[in-house]
Amino acid sequence: MEGRTDGPRLDGRRIAVAVGRGLIRRRELSIFVVCVAAAIYFAVTGSGFTTTENYHTIAQYVAPWIIIGAGEVMLLICGQIDLSAGFVFTLAPFLLTSFSGDGMPLLLALVCAVAVSGLVGVVNGLIHTLFNVASFIVTLGMAFFLEGMSLIASNAQPEAAPKSGWVARAFGQAHWSELIWALVIVAVMQTLLSTTKFGVNTQAVGSNPIGAAEAGIRINRIKIVNFSLCSALAGFGGILDGIRVGSFDPTNGGNETMFLAVASAVIGGTALMGGSGTILGALLGALLLGIVYDGFNLTGVNANAFDVVLGIAIIAAMLLNVYLGMLRKKASR
Questions:
Q1: What pLDDT, in 10s, does the model give residues 296-331?
Q2: How far is CA 4 from CA 1, 8, 9, 10, 263, in A?
Q3: CB 238 within 8 A of CB 253
Q4: Number of H helices, E strands in the chain
Q5: Which pLDDT score is estimated for 47?
Q6: Concatenated DSSP letters for 231-279?
Q7: What residues contact residue 229 under an 8 Å CB cut-off, 6+ apart?
Q8: Banded model confidence at residue 275, pLDDT cuts 50, 70, 90
Q9: How much is the pLDDT for 314?
Q10: Segment among 30-39, 84-93, 276-285, 318-327 with least mean pLDDT
């Protein structure tokens, strides 16, 4: 009888120990557990959460945050931030209409709009590295500039987005296409970060810039490329979102989208001081925000409470990262 009772207890203890070690070693696991807990809570307490339509709604919330968050993670890891990404998100669709209005095929116009978005990041990176201006200041100024450019280009009026043709279907019109693109970007960017020399150098620049320079890593080049990646992804996200909605709106994106993308990265475990973070973590951070936002809407909670939860979640994520970092140091001794 004792063998029958002790076996399951030991197995349960081993599972608990394994989960505990996983939470310490893999910060994404902790945010994944919170995502599952939040989803279960809203599925039990609210009606309509576990429907395909609602999952699609959550996907629409989180896809832009994931796409921009992937770029912000790369910048945060190398110790920088881009406050203009939300306004690149706004401007890129109008670049698309400008190029396509000149007779350019839609696919080529999309590529050109994303390329120009990437050039915005190059400008940010060059100003930061050549003149040693903090990225916070550079991208803040760029944000205001891009906001004005969006209003001028659109005459402060929404424009109809492309709705016909395979390009429109593949880049936003088709069901789930925006989320599929977001997941593809996560896979590509995580591979870039984890398995390539460029990813290793990005982490080295953020964790120990002096040591990285002494090791021969071209710090400025790494930063400029990451600024460019962040802006290009923001532009691509803005085009996808506009085509999905069916309208390019000069009030779409902006600060709110940028801050939610940064919040996704931070909640997902990316260190604001640089040196560590994952794209997968940003995906889970965005998913948690989307679940909470959607759950609040379904349960009738005032939308203003979402900001309260968001603020608490960011502070809690930072405290959890500090605590897990201490546990990892103890475990490595």
A1: 888 887 767 778 887 887 787 777 777 776 776 676
A2: 5, 7, 9, 11, 48
A3: yes
A4: 14, 2
A5: 81
A6: HHHHHHHHHHHHHHHTEE-TTSSHHHHHHHHHHHHHHTT--TTSS---H
A7: 71, 74, 118, 121, 189
A8: confident
A9: 79
A10: 318-327
Distance, in Å, from the CA atom of 64 to the CA atom of 264, rounded to the nearest integer, reads 11
CA-nearest of 249, 224, 223, 229 to 238 is 249
Residue type, 195: T
> Whats the size of the chain, residue-wise?
333
Buried b or exposed e, range 132-162, using 16+ CB within 10 angstroms: eeebeebbeebbeebbebbbebbeeebbebb
* CB-based contact 209:222 (threshold 8 Å): no
Is the distance from CB of 71 to CB of 234 less than 8 angstroms? Answer: yes
Cα 125 to Cα 222: distance, rounded to the nearest angstrom: 9
**Secondary element (H or E) of residue 202:** helix 197-207
Could you tell me the CA-to-CA distances from 72 to 15, 189, 277, 281 in Å, in that order? Answer: 35, 11, 10, 12
pLDDT at position 3, please?
46
Determine phi and psi for 183, rounding to 5 degrees.
Answer: -70, -35
Residue type, 23: L
Hey, what are 240's tokens? 């996808």
